[in-house]
Design a protein that fits this description.
Layout lengths: L4 H7 L11 E3 L4 E4 L5 E9 L5 E5 L7 E3 L3
Antiparallel strand pairs: 1-3, 2-3, 3-4, 4-5
The protein binds zinc ion (ZN).
Length: 70
């Protein structure tokens, strides 16, 4: 799958960082109750240029930005 330069940079952001300018939320934010009653959130994003999809998460056990392998 070809992805644009902005998405390549996004995929390299393992910890945090805001979505790049053409990366738009495509779903409602999902709220989970993790271990120790710690809540975390996930949200799906899609790039408007190359159509790559990412899931953003603030679960400290996950990458902040996970590129969907399609
Ligand atoms: Zn892209």
């Amino acid at each position: 799958m070809e992805i644009c330069n902005l998405c390549e940079d996004q995929a390299a952001k393992s910890k945090s960082g805001k979505p790049h300018e053409t990366l738009m939320a495509i779903e409602q934010k999902r709220v989970f109750k993790g271990s120790n009653a710690r809540r975390f959130e996930e949200q799906d994003y899609q790039c408007q240029v190359c159509q790559a999809k990412f899931t953003w998460s603030n679960n400290t056990n996950d990458l902040a930005w996970t590129l969907w392998q399609g």
